[in-house]
Amino acid sequence: MASQPGESGLSIRDVGMVYRRGEQVTTALVGCSLEIPEGNWASLIGASGCGKSTLLRILADIVRPTSGTALVGGVTPAEARAARTFALVSQQSTMLPWRKILANVELGLEVAGVDKVERKRRAEEAIELVGLKGFEQAFPSELSGGMRQRAAIARALTLKPRFLLMDEPFGALDEITREKLNFELLRILKETSATLLLVTHSISEAIILSDTVAVMSPRPGRISHVVDIGFGHERTGAMRDDPQFGAYESELRHALHGPAGAPRPMATPSPSHALA
Ligand SMILES: Nc1ncnc2c1ncn2[C@@H]1O[C@H](COP(=O)(O)OP(=O)(O)OP(=O)(O)O)[C@@H](O)[C@H]1O
């Protein structure tokens, strides 16, 4: 069951981000707030450059916000990184070309100092979970793009992260492979009970994979609209035929393509999806 927002989930409170590079100052985020209770699945959607990746990178301790607070499981992103409670999967997740899939998937465990036997056991378990059994001894170049992304997800899962931070993980894949992987990810999320924060450009992917879809306004990004997706966690491809799916699509499309910069009405947050 979901716990109190902020205590053990992902918490973004009044976060602002200003990038400075020489003379150039870019205000990427202003007053962003979002609470994702542990065990929930959430997506960030918004126009290109609105700051989605920045928000994810703040949670992943890659960049520090210039104002506000970000918490991962109730601790700072730096503490969460040290405790290895989250894993990041991105569109460009790279496999080392000279290592076979098993060795690539073992990489995170190797860095964490896990012994060889346990490493192999956990990597094989993750490979099976993502449906790549039989490809342990293949090189990345021998796999399709979709299979390489599955391997990247397997590598992320070996450390049994409580939080999966995913930045356009299926962005480079064709529509059919992408949808197949969406439903495989749903199965994995249920099996692992991980909390998901996904950055995507696809409205339908956001609906399929989320309890909560947060829409960001164009730069400087802020969270302008939150839609709760009431499909529960038992989801199949049939959800796309549900009239409610179309209603969510239409609501999100309106939220995304409203007048630039104009504040959008907030969806009434449910107790489990409170928007600070
Ligand atoms: N390291 C950086 N240094 C300077 N500016 C940056 C940096 N990273 C991002 N930005 C700027 O911050 C803004 C938000 O970028 P970000 O990548 O977070 O957006 P995004 O919504 O993820 O975009 P996209 O959907 O195109 O991937 C952009 O204007 C971008 O140019």
TrEMBL record:
Location of region: Disordered: 257-276
Lineage: Bacteria, Pseudomonadati, Pseudomonadota, Alphaproteobacteria, Hyphomicrobiales
One Pfam entry name: ABC_tran
Protein origin, superkingdom: Bacteria
Listed PANTHER family: ALIPHATIC SULFONATES IMPORT ATP-BINDING PROTEIN SSUB, TAURINE IMPORT ATP-BINDING PROTEIN-RELATED
Keyword match Transport: yes
Statement: the UniProt record of this protein carries the keyword DNA damage: no
Domain ABC transporter residues, every copy: 12-243
Protein family: Belongs to the ABC transporter superfamily.
Name listed for the protein in its UniProt record: NitT/TauT family transport system ATP-binding protein
Naturally occurring in which organism (per UniProt): Kaistia hirudinis
SUPFAM superfamilies noted in UniProt: P-loop containing nucleoside triphosphate hydrolases
GO molecular function: ATP binding; ATP hydrolysis activity
